[in-house]
Amino acid sequence: MTTLETGTKNCKGFTLIEVLLSVVILAVGLIPIIGGYHTALEAYKRAQFTAEGFWILHQKMAEGRLGMRFDSGISASQSGKEGHWEWTTKIKKALPKDLYELEVEVEKKGSGRKLTAATYVRK
């Protein structure tokens, strides 16, 4: 900060170079902060995708297990839609005669990412 004397008045203030330098320092400091917001937003989207996908995956696994235990007819494959999600359930016979493999796959439309889980169910 400089002091400028003009006639009888004593004017205090910042020079143009001081203002420009502080703006440059502020801009350089804000770039990583803005990048951090972008990274946090991407992490939030990924976490939301995973949470929704696992919720539907868990729901379809539970439906498949219950359907296999209480339903006499076992369907080899089922598919459907749940909101923006598409799901597929596959049932395969395993080696012991009363054991079945239940595989569920969910995919969000347009994302190209899938979540898959498998378990064994005794009938």
Output the keywords.
123 residues; alpha+beta; rod-shaped
The portion of residues forming beta strands comes to 35-45%
Helices and strands, in order, run as EEHEEEE
Report helical residue fraction. Answer: 40-55%
- Count of alpha and pi helical runs: 1
Structural class call reads: alpha+beta
Shape: rod-shaped
Low-confidence stretches: none
- What's the overall average pLDDT, rounded? 84
| Rg, Cα atoms, Å | 31 Å
Lateral strand order in the biggest sheet: 3-4-5-6
Main β-sheet: number of strands, strand sense, barrel status?
4 strands, antiparallel
Distance, first to last CA: 83 Å
Q: Could you tell me the number of beta strands?
A: 6
What features would you describe in this structure?
The longest helix has 55 residues, at 16-70. The mean pLDDT is 84. It is built from 1 helix and 6 strands, in the order ββαββββ. The protein has a 4-stranded antiparallel beta sheet, with helices on one face. Helix content is 45%, strand content 36%. It starts with a strand and ends with a strand. Strand 5 and strand 6 form a beta hairpin. It has one helix at residues 16-70; strands at 2-6, 9-13, 77-82, 85-93, 99-108, 114-122. With 123 residues, it is α+β, with helices and mostly antiparallel strands.
